[in-house]
Amino acid sequence: MTPNPPPEAAPPAPPTLGTMRERYGPRYRWYLLLSVMVGVMASIMSSTIVNVAIPGMSHHFSLGQERAQWVSSGFMVAMTVSMLTTPWLLSRYGYRRTYAGTMVLLLAGGIAGGLANDFSLVLLARVAEGLAAGVVQPIPAIIILRAFEPHEQGRASGIFGMGVVLAPAIGPSIGGVLVDLFGWRSIFFMVVPFCLASLWLSYKFVPTTAPGGVAATRGSGLDWRGLALGTLGTLCLLNGLVELRGDSPLQAGLLLGGAVLAFAGFVWWQRRIAAGGGEPLMNLGLFQYRQFAMGSVVAFIYGTALFGSTYLLPVYMQVGLQLSASHVGTILLPAGIVLAVTIAGVGRLADRQPTWLLVSIGLALLAASFGLMMVLRLDSALWLLVAFAIIGRIGLGFILPSLNLGSMRPLAKPLIPQGASAINFLRMLGGAAGVSLCAIVLEWRLAAHGDSLANAATSPARLAAFDEVFLMLAALCALAICAAWQLRRPNS
Q1: Residue 337 and residue 276 in contact, taking contact as beta carbons nearer than 8 Å
Q2: What's the confidence (pLDDT) of residue 22?
Q3: How far is residue 442's CA from residue 395's CA, in Å, rounded to a whole number?
Q4: Euclidean distance between the first and final Cα of the chain, in Å?
Q5: CA 172 – CA 68 distance, rounded (Å)
């Protein structure tokens, strides 16, 4: 008799959330957060660092200001709209395939942009990077709210936020050195090591399952009509705001009217799909939760103030206070370090203190920072400028880890991916509008005071115009505090 063949070894268990937890133990959730943090840092770095390369790129391709601006604008539009697709992608393909796919797309965009000899290819590479950045950015909030216990979520948000803030703080400094040594193409290649590291981490720690630990399923198709309407609305809004700065008020009005119609059509279509039992791109049922609705208002206004001030502060320091570019970097560096430290500390506070209180404190500090800028004059000491910038960054440190938690904790768990996607979309939409809003109001107030940015010398009238823009930002933050107050739980 021939001996029975040895039994075949059982195939390894698929790397689901459960098997990963068994393999790596209680620390697994931190490994998972670190894995996605590397990818998000790469995506944020790609969004901010390219600004250092625009002058060299413009010279190489002989670009005017309008065409060069699309290097940033194309990325912004692609990132904002693609955030809406994250819940569908996670449900259909699971965490690992979605995350790894975005990193491959970001890697391809970086390599293609660095090797491109035609500006159209550079622009296409930036759009690809923007699509990847938009999909990946809501994922950490989903993981924090689903993989961590409530008493750990604040600490996880703080650690994640600290890492994400360091990317744009350090990126431009390293990028400037790379441009000086190797030219503008080196900026695109900077994301390559981060993408390779994130791909390795994804295959080691990121599960194949969808949110909730369930298997990824095909389900219904992507809501392409909703995505098209959202893209059209975003494009019309951003271009309409840009045209307001030019000499075409009719074209600006038509574009802004188109944005209103596109977003109204988007809302109507989302309601229709939901009524028919389909899966809308944005579940409008989220806004029936009062805390989420108010958190979305805060996110939009916060994005407007944050991105608007990011544009305004360097212009104010160089054009209003006549400081050199090197001075600007030196002044903002301590504020960036303080921001990273604050986020880590406030993250721990968010596990013990009401998030609405932390968000309100942050908005109050941000408003105070903008208001204090109005007391500066040409002969003011530089340490005052440093101190006021630090106050604003401490405010941001209070807001960043707390806003998502306060807005999304009340949501039913199946709605968390949709919630993370929607609130990130609204924050980025507010941010995209904030840059144009600050530029428009600044030019308007400069003209009202009889000055313009083209003048070589500064004047009290120019400082008065900047002061009025800072006052507008402070007022927006004060308005956001009213919404943040509504983040309280109904019984508190």
Answers
A1: no
A2: 75
A3: 24
A4: 78
A5: 18
pLDDT of residue 10: 46
Specify the length of the chain in residues: 492
Identify the pLDDT of residue 66: 61
Return the structure tokens found at 194. 């981060």
**CA 6 to chain CA mean position, Å:** 55
**Is residue 386 within 8 Å of residue 103, measured between CB atoms?**
no
d(Cα 247, Cα 239) in Å, to the nearest integer? 13
Instruction: Decide if 436 contacts 331 (C-beta within 8 A).
Output: no
User: For the chain, what is the radius of gyration of the CA atoms?
Assistant: 23
Q: What is the pLDDT of residue 455?
A: 64
Helix (H, G, I), strand (E, B) or coil at 277: coil
Write out residues in the chain with pLDDT < 70, as ranges: 1-18, 48, 51-52, 55, 63-69, 166-173, 175-176, 213-214, 218-219, 245-246, 324-329, 452-458, 489-492
Signed CA dihedral, 159, 165, 169, 171: sign only: positive
Gap between the Cα atoms of 188 and 179, Å rounded: 10
Residues 487, 275: Cα–Cα separation, whole Å: 28
Handedness of CA 230, 276, 424, 16 (dihedral sign): negative
Q: In Å, what is the CA distance from 18 to each residue of 28, 223, 230, 343?
A: 10, 31, 36, 30
**Secondary structure (3-state) at 279:** coil
Contacts of 57 (CB under 8 A, 6+ apart): 63, 68, 71, 122, 184
Say which residue the tokens 């068994």 belong to: 22
| pLDDT for res 472 | 92
**Unique residue bearing structure tokens 């390293």:** 174
Residue 90, Cα to own-chain centre: how many angstroms? Answer: 19
Contact residues for 303 (Cβ-Cβ < 8 A; gap 6+): 426, 427, 428, 429, 430, 431, 432, 434
Return the pLDDT at 452: 66
Residue 354's region, left for phi above 0, alpha for psi from -120 to 50, else beta, is beta
Q: Which helix (H) or strand (E) holds 295?
A: helix 290-315
